[in-house]
Amino acid sequence: MLHPLTLIKPLIARLRSIEPWLLMMFGLVSAGGFLFLQLASEVTEGDTRGFDEEILLSLRRANDLSVPIGPGWLTHSVDDITSLGGTTVLTLITLVTVFYLLIIRQRRLGIFVLLGVLGGWGISTLLKLGIARPRPEIVPHLVDVHDLSFPSGHAMLSAVTYLTLGALLSRLQLRRSARIYIICIAVLLTLLIGMSRVYLGVHYPTDVLGGWCAGTVWATLCWIVARTLVFGTESREKEELHESR
């Protein structure tokens, strides 16, 4: 009869072989996916309507809902910020990054970045069509919008694009401070773009939260795949080349 430790030891050894970063990434994916599903359920049942509308109303002047709170220049600044999450800007940034990676002979990474961003955009479209939440009408929109509301496309696509590019490009940096800086800028842009959609009255706060969750989950999955397959393969190739010498 086998001793219980004989059966447990291989399992313990396998768990120890798993890198801590991978466990943290899977934890982030699980948490983000759970939060998104909870938000989607609450949104479809209408349970978040009171919270959403209260936030939107608090960002407008009580005597004129067409005028947002704050100085006049703030509206122009927010409008500029929200354009950073538009399809045109994100497409240009993605293409410029992909061509840069091709120029420095990171062909595999360039193709992966392109596929990762395109995949995120496709998922965003499917989620919008599946949930089919109308845009908020409680306050006038400060920019023209014509598609559905949940999840926020700007919030999700900016998270997908900036977080994916930030995570992958930071991997190419030698200095730790440079890697942290790139990640922080990617996160900051994602947050600012999402908040700008609420300020402009074109999205409910829960639309933006849902977009952040879905975008972060997809960007994290892309990072896991890249770290395992793309960077992992490159490391093995370097080791084999070093051994052959």
From TrEMBL:
Superkingdom of origin organism: Bacteria
Keyword Hydrolase: yes
Keywords for the protein's UniProt record, in alphabetical order: Hydrolase, Membrane, Transmembrane, Transmembrane helix
Signal sequence residues: none
Tagged with keyword Transmembrane: yes
Chain ranges passing through the membrane: 21-40, 81-102, 109-131, 151-169, 181-202, 208-230
A GO molecular-function descriptor: undecaprenyl-diphosphatase activity
Protein name: Undecaprenyl-diphosphatase
Organism of provenance: Pararhizobium capsulatum DSM 1112
